[in-house]
Amino acid sequence: MIPAPVSKMSFAVRSVIPMPPAEFSPLTTIRSGAYSSRSAGIVSRSPRRPGPPTTSPMKSSRMAASLVPAPRHRRRLWKSGRVASRPDTEELVRRAFAYPYDPPAGSFVQIGARTLPVPPEEIEVEGRRALLAYGSNASPEALTRKLAALPPRPIPVLRVALSGWDVVYSAHVTRYGSVPAAVVPSPGTVASVHLVFPDEEQFAVLAATEGENYRLERLADFTAELEIGGEAPAEIDAFIGVYGPLLLDGSPVALAAIPARGRAFPELTTPAMIDRVRAALRPDLTVPEFILHHIERGGLRPLPELRG
Predict the structure, then answer these.
(1) Residue 1 lies in a domain
(2) Where are the alpha helices (DSSP H) in the chain?
(3) Helix locations, 157-213, DSSP H
(4) Does residue 4 lie in a domain region?
(5) pTM for this one?
(6) Containing H/E element for 10?
(7) How far from each other are the two terminal CA atoms of the chain, in whole angstroms?
(8) Which of 6, 79, 187, 248 has its CA 20 to 30 A from that of 151?
(9) How many helices (H) and strands (E) does the chain have?
């Protein structure tokens, strides 16, 4: 089943939300136990794979655990245990460390490279799906980079307190050398994340950036509170990591950059997590060498469980 986009919906906003707003303020509540389809009598108590969206066919195949070879034309960034000398090395390392790129502490509207507060009038999202943004898709920096090829058009990004799920590290290294996020069920946890409402073209571009590391599913068993109030979506789609969470001594590890109440998992910053992965897999490399090594090779997936 293809998840239906949000239809005939707008958010009535009475005032501009201050940046940052009070965390987890009492706002509109969406309650969704098990997801129910539009067909009577069909209920699922686990995330449903909705099938490929009409705007951007999604692949659901999984890649084998291996280092992905870099294209032959790509210049070597790492050789014989030493970082190659090149002017953008510092920026490449910064990008890996900076994930998830400082998602704002409130709701906003992104238009090209401009980040604007939520306007004091209705935000029209008719025909758009509600997409959970728990990593870089909630960041103005990342949205600007990902959508750079499109004409600037508004994309609402609304802060939400999501109950029953938490944001943890995924068991893979990205093609830019970082360890990205995934979401996992976590009863009793309230994570402060965002919903993004892309139009069809924006969604196609965002979906393409997820590659084969994530699959699109309908979120289940959640409670969500929008901080701006107004009518809220009862159905939320999410990119779910295909490799599952990265385990450290048997436990998922939460992103320290994503605030949460009632968090059940230990948390680490992104630089600290990259260093833990490096120490376990390539202790012969420095952290910058490890990052550039995996940029050259297109990432690594899946990662094994870490110990210690």
Answers:
(1) no
(2) 89-98, 140-146, 200-210, 270-281, 287-297
(3) 200-210
(4) no
(5) 0.76
(6) strand 10-11
(7) 42
(8) 6
(9) 5, 22
The rounded distance, in Å, linking the Cα atoms of 224 and 49 is 21
CB 225 within 8 A of CB 212: no
Residue 61 lies in a domain: no
Assigned token pair, 289: 């060498």
The residue segments making up the domain with residue 113 are 10-32+78-301
Are 205 and 145 in contact by the 8 Å Cβ rule? The answer is no
Q: DSSP for 97-123, please give it.
A: HHTT----SS-EEEETTEEEEPPSS-E
Q: What is the domain count for the chain?
A: 1
DSSP structural state of residue 138? G
For 156-182, the pLDDT digits (tens) are: 999 999 999 999 999 999 999 999 999
**Sign of the alpha-carbon torsion through 13, 23, 236, 176:** positive
Instruction: Please give the structure tokens belonging to residue 45.
Output: 């108590």
Contact between residue 194 and residue 105 where contact means Cβ atoms under 8 Å apart: no
The residues facing 157 across adjacent strands are: 108, 196
The whole-angstrom separation of Cα 143 and Cα 176 is 16
What CATH number corresponds to the domain at position 147? 3.10.490.10
